[in-house]
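Open question from group meeting: does this chain pack into something compact, or does most of it stay loose? Before anyone orders reagents, we agreed to write out a predicted structure and look at it together. Recording both the input and the output here so the notebook holds the full record.
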Amino acid sequence: MLLICPMQSSDSKAHLSTQFTIPASGIGDLNSPIFFAGSCFSEHIAGMLGALGFQSISNPFGILYNPMSLATAMEKIATEYEYSSHDFVFQQGEFHSMHHHGSFKAQDAESLAKRINEQNQAAHQFISEASVAIITLGTAKVWQLREPSMVVGNCHKIPDHEFTTRLLTEHEIKVSLAKCVQYLSMINPGIKVMFTISPVKHLREGISANLISKSRLISAVASFREEHPGVSYFPAYEIMTEELRDHRFYAEDLAHPSQWSIHYIFRRFCETCFDGKTLKYLEDALAFNRMKNHRVLSKNEEEQQQWKNKCDSALEKLMENYPEKTFWTAGWR
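C-alpha cells returned:
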C-alpha cells in the first residue's frame, strides 16, 4: 500500500536541509581591512571581498591547513623573522620552506628568502592596520618531519617515510589558537579575530578520519571561545554540511564546494559580519562589477569608448553614494 505524506510539497522541500540562524558578529564595515589566513576557502572569501572594493590580503605563507602551522606563520610575521638559506630544504632541484605552501620555491635560496621576507613585511604592515583577522582551519592532522623534528606546512613531495602523522589533541589545537590571537594582537592590539572551519573535505584520509578531524577542530574552537568570548566564529563548515547537505553543492571531486556554494556561503558571511549600510554597498558594488566585466562584442572603437564612459559614470555614482568609503579598487578605474 502506498502511503501518501500529508505534508505540503513546500514543507517537504524545507525539511531537506537545516536552516539555522547565525548570530551577527558585526566585525566589519565599509572601510575594514581584513586579513585572511588558512585553507583555500579563505582565499575564495578574500578574493571576492577584494573584487568588491575591500582591502584584504590572504595567506602570506600560502595555503595552510593545520592550526600549528598557522600559529607558526603568525609568530614569524609578528616577530618579523628574517628567513635565510639556513631555513630551507633542497628538494628536486629547488629550495623550499617547510613553513610555507609549495608555491614558495626557487632554484636559489637568496631569491626565495627575499620573496618570503617581503611577504612577511607586507603582512605585518597590513595586520597593523587591519580591523579583522579571519583564520580558517582545515584539518587537525599534522605531518611532522622526523629530522629535524618539526610540524610542516607542506611536505613538498619529500618521501612519506621522512614524516610521522598524527591528529592534534584538543589541547594542542587550543594552544595554537591562543598563539594565533597572541601574535596578531602583538602586531595590532585592537584587531578582532574570527575563526572558521573549512567546508572542504579531506577525503584522502577517509570519510571517518575527515569527520573526526573536523569534529576535533570544531570542539576545540568552541572550548577556546568559552574561555575567550571576544573571539568570534563563522560556521562555514556547518553551512555546507547542514544547509547545503547534498552532493549537488560540491564540485566534481565531491570534496570542494561548488562555485555556487562558495558564493552562497560568502553571502551568509557578509550577512553575519556587516551592517545594513555595508550590505547595500556590496549589492551595488556587485552590480557595478557585473557591468565592468561585461564584454563589449563590438570592435567599433566609438562603441567601446561609449561603454567605458558608461562604466566610469557608474563608478562615479557609486563613489558619490558612499562618500564615507576611503578605499577603492584601483582596477575599477
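Observations to bring back to the group:
The chain has two domains: 25-87+110-144+167-274, 276-333.
The chain has a mean pLDDT of 91.
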